[in-house]
Amino acid sequence: MGSTPAAPPTWSTPAEGARLWFAKDTLRKTLKIAVIVGTLLSIINQASVIAGGDATAATWTRVALNYVVPFCVSSIGFLTATRVRR
Question: Which of 10, 32, 50, 63 is the most buried (most CB within 10 A)?
Fold first, then answer.
């Protein structure tokens, strides 16, 4: 019939977790989440400042963090769901 789906990746050591964090398939998922959530947060929190021409370096730092935080949260969530305790 059809092929069986591959087992989800797992990890148990910090080195394995780090490899999984930066694995191509993991990054494809977590970066997509970061782009969507980061864009929404930036629009909600900084759009008026940017559109008004009042953006400073601090504004752009906040915008960058709007992408970094959801990337980290989604990555940690993924790692938490795939961890195998031995």
Answer: 63
